[in-house]
Specification:
Layout (H helix, E strand, L loop, with lengths): L17 E6 L6 H6 L3 H5 L1 E2 L9 E7 L4 E15 L6 E7 L10 E4 L8 E3 H5 L2 E5 L16 E2 H9 L5 H8 L2 E8 L5 E6 L4 H11 L6 H9 L7 E9 L5 H15 L10
Parallel strand pairs: 1-3
Antiparallel strand pairs: 1-7, 2-5, 3-4, 4-5, 4-6, 6-8, 9-12, 10-11, 10-12
Helix pairs in contact: 4-6, 5-6
Length: 268
């Protein structure tokens, strides 16, 4: 099955002005741009006329090996070449008919990974690898090999059946975690122990972004949408049998190493 076999894309079967893009970046977290509604702005600025005379673009973000995950479809409204530059600025409009497949549709891009902009009616009608469960975030990569934006954390916690491996692994450990405010670089360090492990502790943030922490409460009272910049990750994994005192000792050590009391978001 290929892209055009999906009912949502049938409108493009006889359309020869649709481009398919596979975005990747070495210095930008593209999914963070998606989650913070800044991806369209990023996509609309290009160093050359990537879109050409296309009327629509179907966008993906590069995944492992030669795969790509669906972001959305945009209609191109206007394009401008910037004066004395090779850069182009586009004005586009997202099409909501495809939202159901966002972050779920995975395609095999194939050997032409360097050719990141292709015409749909030529090489761009990619083979579908899988359609992930609704509200699936991503494969669990290991305890130390991920960061989660707040929106993804909330989606994951509220949909454990779609993210079973995350639930299984994060429920099985105690540990020390960090919340980074990507807006100003300040950090909050916390810990989780006992029943439910880190999953159980992060569940409180899904319910309320401050999680009951004093300085986060103050921050969000002053800036109610600041949690959209929060990034969650794990600093130290401990066995579920670790005592409360053992876990808190590791938490205090992390606070001391990173200076989160003096310069961050920890009040004690």
């Amino acid at each position: 099955m290929n892209i055009l076999d999906l009912k949502q894309f049938h409108k493009f079967v006889d359309h020869n002005k649709v481009k398919v893009l596979r975005h990747r970046s070495s210095n930008e977290d593209l999914w963070q741009l998606v989650n913070s509604n800044r991806f369209t702005q990023y996509q609309n600025s290009q160093s050359w006329d990537v879109f050409g005379d296309a009327e629509y673009i179907i966008s993906f973000i590069a995944e492992r090996y030669k795969y790509a995950k669906f972001v959305g479809v945009w209609k191109i409204i206007k394009k401008n070449k910037l004066p004395k530059s090779t850069r182009y600025k586009y004005r586009t409009k997202p099409l909501p008919d495809f939202d159901e497949l966002k972050k779920r549709l995975i395609v095999k891009w194939g050997d032409g990974t360097r050719s990141w902009a292709q015409w749909l009616h030529r090489q761009g009608n990619k083979e579908i690898s899988e359609i992930l469960p609704k509200d699936y975030i991503m494969d669990f990569p290991g305890f130390y090999d991920f960061t989660l934006d707040y929106d993804d954390l909330k989606t994951m916690i509220n949909n454990p059946d779609s993210n079973r491996e995350w639930y299984r692994m994060l429920s099985s450990i105690s540990g020390v975690y960090i919340i980074l405010d990507n807006k100003n670089g300040k950090q909050y360090i916390g810990s989780a122990y006992g029943r439910g492990g880190i999953w159980g502790r992060w569940k409180s943030y899904a319910k309320n972004p401050h999680g009951g922490n004093k300085l986060l409460i103050e921050l969000l009272k002053d800036k109610p949408r600041r949690h959209r910049y929060f990034q969650f990750s794990i600093l130290r994994v401990l066995e579920p049998s670790a005592t409360k005192d053992e876990v808190i000792r590791q938490e205090k050590l992390a606070k001391k190493k990173l200076g989160s009391r003096a310069f961050g978001l920890n009040s004690n």
